[in-house]
Amino acid sequence: MPKRIGIISQRFAQPLFLGLRRGDNPSFELIEESSAQLAIKLREKNLDGAFLSPIDYAKDYSMYRIVPEVGAVSEGESGTILLFFRENIARINTLAINPGDTSEIVLASIIFQEKYDTKLKIIPTTESLEDALKKADAFLAVGDEALRLQDKPNKMDLVDEWKDITELPYVHGTWVSPEGSLTKDEIEILISSSKQVDETVTEVVPQFRYNLDDIAVKALGEFFRMAYYHGILKDIPDVKFFLYKS
Fold first, then answer.
1. pTM for the whole thing?
2. How far apart are CA 159 and CA 146, in angstroms?
3. Which of 34, 93, 128, 158 has the most CB atoms around it within 10 Å of its CB?
4. Do domains 3-73+170-217 and 81-166 have the same CATH topology?
5. pLDDT per residue over 58-117, tens digit each?
6. What are phi and psi of 82, to 5 degrees?
7. Class of CATH domain 3-73+170-217
8. Where are the domains of the chain?
9. How far apart are CA 1 and CA 191, in angstroms?
10. What tens digit of pLDDT does each residue of 151-197 get?
11. Please, what CATH class does the domain formed by 81-166 belong to?
12. Residue 160 to residue 230: CA distance in whole angstroms
């Protein structure tokens, strides 16, 4: 029976999934949902592994291990986490965002506390940019929605803001699985498939890379540390990897 593996639909992450989609590989059944929905399915043991955002990993980190070597990482103006604000506004206090964008909510909260000494009030919404800005000072667009809206004015790129604060890249997500759910061979398939990067995809999001190197691991740890410092996480999650040698 194939293992059930969760993936997301966002374009920036597709290079990690191309090898799995293309191959005649009976090892995995792919389940496509949002990271937050995948996290629930993984917690309830309805999946054997999933591509999760950092915060979705952090919520249950004691149960999981991260697949080494591969992940979705960007640096500078990646255009995939954009905060749009009302014209002529002097200070941003309220932020409208899809409640499923868990890590991006935390990223915005960290940046505004660190750089602007502001604790944002989060307003959950599924409305459009225009409608959301009638109810909040700013609106956070993530992934494909951000790419669609990137020509709109009055915005800041939060990945670039994170880089300015930390001098580190931002890790958007990694493969995660409970220890014992995947065999060594299955982990190897995830790693090798994730390295089959398609240049036609990366042209759309050129600021991304898909290797989880030491700098990316450091960035992940710093994100958790800052989330804890600002009272968002109850403790600092361990960044725990499967023991695997390529």
1. 0.93
2. 12
3. 158
4. yes
5. 999 999 999 999 999 999 898 999 999 999 899 999 999 999 999 999 999 999 999 999
6. -115, 130
7. alpha beta
8. 3-73+170-217, 81-166
9. 20
10. 999 999 999 999 999 999 999 999 999 999 999 999 999 998 887 76
11. alpha beta
12. 20
